[in-house]
Amino acid sequence: MARRSVGRPRLPVLDRKTIALAALDLADSEGDSAVTMIRLAKHLGVAPSALYNHVSGKDEVRLLIQDVVMSRVDDVGLKQVVAGEIALDEGLRQWAYSYRETFARYPGLVPLIATLPVGGAPATQAMYESVAAALAAAGVPMRQIMPVIVAFESFLFGSAMDVHAPADIFRSAPGDDEAVTPTLRQALDAQPRSSADHSPNPYANPPFEWGLKSLCEAVMKLVDGKE
């Protein structure tokens, strides 16, 4: 029987993917402020110096977090638009649903990723290229492509966070003067509830679907030259 070698315990093999996944796990569970090189090294069970063989510091780790999240957004529908296989609005819908679902898993990271640059984040750049290429292939004027992307992303980040908003976020609190908000209360009472929605906020889906439909219709008007 072979004898076990005596020496230091075997350390985990580090690479950028391993670091990215560990950083995402740490940021998701404890927040972005917890992702320091010292905390990340402890999370991985290595010395902090070992991380610097793969990343330059916390700023690059943040880009890795962004990339690993963005790589989970499905852009197949957008590529089908470029290939002429489906219409632009359908491709945008597929992408938007995946984007919202992905970020709804990591709502705490939305403020971080929404403000990070895309330079140095190849998976993020590739995702944006897919959106831009689909819009261009469908005939959206080049000057309108970035406004469309920013409008969609603003809507999708907010929609992802709304999945976790309290269902009674607009309700009056005990002691409030309800006479101040009679129209708001009527609107709340009339709001449809999605019976198929099992998210913390059962009212999140209908507004998302309405907003997405409105955005897609606006983009198709750009294609048709009506705006």
If you had to describe this structure to a student in words, what would you say it looks like?
It is built from eleven helices and no strands. The chain is an all-alpha fold and 227 residues long. It has two domains: 16-70, Arc Repressor Mutant, subunit A (Orthogonal Bundle), CATH 1.10.10.60; 76-223, Tetracycline Repressor, domain 2 (Orthogonal Bundle), CATH 1.10.357.10. The radius of gyration is 22 Å and the shape is flat.
Q: Could you list some keywords that capture this structure?
A:
227 residues, mainly alpha, Arc Repressor Mutant, subunit A, Tetracycline Repressor, domain 2, 2 domains
Explain briefly what this protein structure is.
This protein has eleven helices and no strands. By secondary structure, it is mainly α. The protein is flat and about 60 Å long.
